Amino acid sequence: MIRLNAPAVAIVMATMISGAAYAADAAPEIKTPEVSVKEARGWYVRGDVGYAVKSNHHTPDIRAYDPTSGHYSSSDFDSSRFDSNDFSGDLGVGYQFNDLIRADITGDLFGGDFDGRFASALPCVGGAAGTGCSTKGSSSFRAGSLMLNGYVDLGTVASFTPYLGAGVGATRVNWNSVDATSACADGTIGCSGAGSSGVRYPGQSDWRMTYALMAGVSYDISANMKVDLGYRYSHVAGGDMFGYSSADAAAGANGTMGRDGGIARHEIRLGLRVTTW
Q1: Contact between residue 171 and residue 130 where contact means Cβ atoms under 8 Å apart
Q2: What is the pLDDT of residues 62-76, one digit of tens each?
Q3: Strands of 154-262, DSSP E
């Protein structure tokens, strides 16, 4: 038979409890990163540069005018190529409403080039009835946007703050004149060696509806200065591109001859925000 000595058992239990307490005190403290949105409120100014990694352009369309009947016919360009300038830039001013919400107004600038070719079953100016006309031309555009943007800051970890944003506004697209070369194309009768001629179509300008979607992360350089790195998708609606040549206008044509189908840009943007409170 095994006999238990009560005082001895008490001493052993006290030793075990004190050892466990010491081990708990000696265990290393595990720290988790603090997640918070730094308190910020007030006005800020910003500037950004963007690089377009991809640009999409819907096929432009064109209206041909028949001076004999006075009728117009519409069709797409046979081929077209847009080259948006890779770089863009903006300046703006904004306000931080609370720890999560901010908004700003920005002015953006960008541009691009265009080359296209279109054909008409109607003869070129001065051409023989029964022939067609093939025209190729090039131009460029400049665009300036005024955007109202809103953002949600999602929390700060080690000075990094991810954010989501969206914007809406208007873009003024200014097309330069289209310098084109027109040449006779065989139709119901042959061109019989007809030469080519230079044609200029006056560029058009108009305001277009524009929207943008943004996502990125900012880093606190100092208490009132942040650097932004983000992605922006923007879409500019289609609009007027160029009008009729002086010869077409003299024959009775009026209005817009060519319209582009809109511009979409995927950009990586780097910016700086400076708070002023």
Answers
A1: no
A2: 888 888 788 888 887
A3: 160-175, 178-185, 196-201, 205-222, 225-236, 239-243, 256-260
Of 71-85, 122-136, 255-269, which has the strongest mean pLDDT? 255-269
> The pTM is what?
0.76
Of residues 63, 62, 68, the one with CA closest to residue 125: 68
For residue 156, give the DSSP letter. Answer: B
- Domain formed by 6-275, architecture: Beta Barrel (2.40)
Distance CA(175)–CA(181), nearest Å, equals 18
Taking Cα atoms as reference points, which of 275, 264, 273 lies closest to residue 90? 273
Burial class of residue 224, CB neighbours in 10 A (0-12, 13-18, 19+): middle
pLDDT over 70 (residue 131): yes
State the CB neighbour count (10 A cutoff) for residue 129: 10
User: Tokens 């002086």, residue?
Assistant: 246
Dist. CA 253–CA 247, nearest whole Å: 9
115 beta partners = 81, 138
DSSP state for residue 9 in the 8-state scheme: H
- Per-domain residue ranges for the chain? 6-275
Residue type, 61: D
State whether the Cα torsion 13-18-24-27 is positive or negative: negative
d(CA 257, CA 183): 18
Q: Residue 176: left (phi > 0), alpha (psi -120 to 50), or beta?
A: beta
Name the token pair of 55. Answer: 């640009």
